[in-house]
Design goal:
mainly alpha
Length: 114
């Protein structure tokens, strides 16, 4: 695909109408931007970058790197928190690990029922 906005929209399974609603613009605006008929206003570029969690440079084809620095930091923090949990879990004896596993199962069931 030639247009990265169209590519990102398709990856998310969004129609132009869906994306337009998320950005508070018309479907025609999205169509014109994707077809190169309209330039991409800075405010829409910023919103697209946040929505798709990619850098503005990626959308503008100035870079092939999708990830923004902010998103990379968020991912690393999230992974770090999960690794802390895994380390703590692995230090438990088998009985306590089984207890944690049963508790997680119960919590998932309760969450699913809500």
């Amino acid at each position: 695909m030639d247009n990265r906005i169209r590519e990102l929209r398709h990856e998310r399974g969004l129609r132009q109408e869906d994306l337009a609603g998320m950005l508070n613009v018309s479907q025609q605006t999205i169509s014109r931007i994707e077809n190169g008929e309209n330039s991409l206003p800075a405010d829409i570029l910023k919103d697209l970058s946040r929505l798709f969690r990619v850098s503005a440079d990626y959308i503008l084809k100035l870079s092939d790197s999708r990830m923004t620095e902010e998103y990379r930091i968020e991912i690393e923090k999230n992974i770090g928190q999960k690794m802390d949990f895994i380390r703590a879990y692995s230090r438990l004896n088998r009985t306590n690990q089984e207890l944690i596993s049963r508790l997680m199962g119960q919590l998932q069931e309760q969450q699913h029922d809500r």
